[in-house]
Amino acid sequence: MIELLHRLCGTFAPSGREEAVRRLVAAEVEPLCDDVRSDALGNLFARRRGSGPRVVLAAHLDQVGVIVTHVGADGFCRIAPVGGVSPSVLLGQRLVFASGLTAAVAAERREDPRQPLRFDQLYLDPQDVAAVRVGDMAVFASGLSVGAERVIGPALDDRAGVAVLIETLRTLAAAPLACDLCCLFSVQEEVGLRGARTAGFQIEADVALAVDVTLAADTPRATPLNVRLGAGAAVKLADRSVLCHPVVGDALQAAAGRARVDFQLEVLDTGGTDAGALQLAGVGAAAGGLSIPLRHVHTAAEMIDRRDLRACVAVLGQFLLAPPRV
Amino acid sequence: MRTEVTRLLRLFADLPGVSGDEERVREAVWEEVRDRVDAARVDALGSLICWKGCRPEGPPPRVLLDAHLDEVGFVVTRIDADGYARFAPVGGIDARLLPGTALRIGREGLPGVIGSRPIHLDKDVSKAPDPRRLAIDAGPDAERRLRPGDFAVFATTCEPFGQGLWKGKALDDRAGCALLAALLGEDLPLPVCATFSVQEEVGSRGAGPAAFSVPTEFALALEGTTCADLPGVEADAEATQLRGGPVVTVMDGTLIAAPEVLRALEATGVPFQWKRTTAGGTDAGRLQLAGAGRAAGVVAVPCRYIHGPAAVLAESDLLAAYDLVLAFLKGLVA
Prior knowledge:
The structure holds two protein chains of two kinds. By secondary structure, chain A is α+β, with helices and mostly antiparallel strands.
C-alpha cells in the first residue's frame, strides 16, 4: 500500500484536472472489478456487482492547489486558491505545474504585517514565466517521507483514502460480498463536493460511505476533538456536511469489532466530505464515513499513521461482508 | 442572426425583469424566437426552454446554451406613513451606487428616486450605506400607487455612445439573452437546447431545474461579466478588459470549466480573453451538476459597472462573443 501511496501522491491532480490520477487508479482497479467507467465530470466508478444493498465507498481524486489568474509583464504571476488552502501555508513553498515546471510562492512587502496575509498579496515566481498561462494550476511539490509508522507529504488528503479503497478491493478480490458495491473515485470534492453530487445521482445507493481524512486533534492548542493519530480508524458520526445515519455508524463499529482493530469516534466541527453530497443525491442514501486521522491538513506536510490506514482497510473489509440494512 | 444582436440587446435591456419577476422579458424573448425553434415550454419556475433541431420527446441534443432573463433590482418591503417606500435589494447590488439613483417601480414603471442625504449632512461619506436605512421617494401619494412586493429596476435607457459602446441597465444578462435569441435565428450546425433561465442573480436557481430534463454533453452559459479596467486599478485586479474580446472562464466560485470545453473554444481560433479572477458564479455551475452532470463552461461579454445603474459594454466584444459561440457549435460537428 505504501508503494501505491507514493505513486498516488506523486501524481498531479488538483480539482477539475484529475485525469492523471484517474488513469492510474483505473489501471489499478480494472483487474479487481466487474466494470470500470467514468462520467462527464471525470468521476471513476469501479463496480463489483452483487446482491444485497447498493453500497458506495467514495474517496476523492482531487487535491488542493492554486490557479494562475494573471501573468504579469514583470514575470510574476497572481494566484487564487483551488479548494481550501490558505495564503500563510503557501508562503515560501515550492509549487509544481502539470508539466513539472516549478515556482516559488512569495509575498509583497506588507504595510501592516500584523494583518493576516491575503491571496492578493501573494505572487508566484516561476522557473520560466513564458511557460505559464492564465488558468494553469499548481500544487505543492510532491515527495512522500515514509517512516516506520508516520508518513508525511502533500495530497494525503485524499490519496490515502484512494489507497485504502484500492487495497480494500484487493483484499476482497476473492471474497463474496454481501452487497452491490461501487467504489467511487470522485472529482472536485475540494471545491464543494461537486463530483459526488452527479455521481450520487447516477449510483442510486442505499448506503454511502466517504473514505476521507479527518482532523487529528492531538497537537498543541488544537480545537478539542476526539481523533488522535495512531488510535485507529475513525468512525464518522458527523461533520459540517452530514449527520451520519446511526445504523451506518453502528455497522462500522461492529465491523471494527469483528476485524479486531482499533477504532475511534469522530465528530468533525469543520469541513465536509462526499458523504454530505451522497446523502442528498436523488432520493438520498444512508450516509456515513470511515476516516483516516491526519495532522496539518492542506499543507505540504500532511501526516498520517500507517496503522490507521491498515485499520481502515480491515474495517471496510468486514463492513462489506455484513453491510447495514436500511 | 448577427445583425440583430444590438437591436435585441436594446429591446431586452429596457424591459423590467428582476429575479422572480421575469415574465415580460421572457415574453419579449419568446416573440423573437417562437418561429425559430421546434418546441418550447415554460417550466414551473418560469424558465423558457427551447429545442431547435430536436424535440423534448426525442434524443437530447449535444449542447445546451443558457442565458438568464433576470436582472438585479429591488423589491418594495413596506410603504411608510411619510410616503417613502422601504426596499430590499434583489441580487448583489453595490450599495454605494444607490443614494440618488432613479428607479422605475411596479407593473407601470412608476418613477421614483432612492433618497440621499445632502453631502453637508453626511458625516461619513466613505462607507457603503446600509440599504435598510435608505428609502424610495415616489411622491406624496406613493402608498396609493405602490405596494409591498412591487419590484423596481434602475431607470436607465439602453443606448449606444462613444465609438462602439453601449450603456444600459441589466446588460448582465440581456447581452446573453440577445446573443442566444440571435443565435437561434441562424441555421445552426447541430441541434441545440436553449434555456432562458430565471433567478440567476439570487443563486442560479432556475438553471438546474431547467437543464435537469435535457441531459446534454456540453453546456455553455452566455453571460455579462465584470470588467474593471479602470484608472487606478492594477492589471491583476481588472478581471477583464473592454474591447479585449469575449471572456472565457477557467474557474469561478461555482465552476471549474471542463477542459473539453476550453479546448473546443481555443480550437475555434476566435480570439478571446481569459477571465483573470476567480470570484463570482454563473448558471454554468448548476448546469454542470444537473442530473448526471455535463461538461460546462462560460462565454461572457465584459461589462464595466456591472450590477449598477448603467453598465457599459463594447459592441465589438458582443459580436465577437456571437462569433465564438457559433464557431464552438461548428467545431462540435467537425
